[in-house]
Amino acid sequence: MLRSYISQQLLIVATALSIVLTQLVGAQEGNSVPTISKQTLIIDVRSRAEWDIGHLQNAQWIPWRQIVAGVDDLEVPKDRQILLYCASGVRSAKAEKALLDEGYQNINNLFSLENAAIVTKQSIVH
């Protein structure tokens, strides 16, 4: 049972690293880094406990399972740029899909908090 759990965790880590490396390679080639403007909405889709430990200075907190309702509550236009992040990219990918399914058009998954801080050039606040 422990081996199975460890194998699952290693697979998750390997997948996350693969995603991040793909993102970084694309960024170096000038492909995957979104242009950030004052209108850009940055959303942390992690748990409240994770948010409390640290988050981007200008981020909004909306848990991934509540992403559509949360964005609707903010009255965000469907074409507004939205950047999402979590811990590894899994939850932000789920949130991205949910928003795309609702017709939002300009969504970028920044994967982790650390990667989001680099891409947006924002500080992590605690």
Number of helices: 5
Q: What structural class do you assign from the helix and strand content?
A: alpha/beta
Number of domains: 1
Radius of gyration: 15 Å
The percent of residues in helical segments reads 40-55%
Number of strands: 6
Strand-residue proportion: 15-25%
* Oligomer category: single chain
User: First CA to last CA: what distance?
Assistant: 36 Å
CATH class: Alpha Beta
State the order of secondary-structure elements, H for helix, E for strand: HEHEEHEHEHE
Strand order of the largest sheet: 3-1-4-5
- Main sheet: strands, sense, barrel: 4 strands, parallel
Q: Which descriptor suits the 3D outline? A: globular
The CATH topology annotation reads as Oxidized Rhodanese, domain 1
pLDDT < 50 stretches? none
CATH architecture title: 3-Layer(aba) Sandwich
Summarize model confidence as the mean pLDDT.
87
CATH superfamily: Rhodanese-like domain
Structure description:
With 126 residues, this protein is α/β, with parallel strands linked by helices. The protein is 48% helix and 17% strand. It contains 5 helices and 6 strands, in the order αβαββαβαβαβ. The strands form 2 sheets. Strands 3-1-4-5 form a 4-stranded parallel beta sheet, with helices on both faces. It has a two-stranded antiparallel sheet with strand order 2-6. The termini are far apart. The relative contact order is 0.19.
Salient structural properties:
126 residues; 17% strand; two-stranded antiparallel sheet; 4-stranded parallel β-sheet; alpha/beta; 48% helix; Oxidized Rhodanese, domain 1
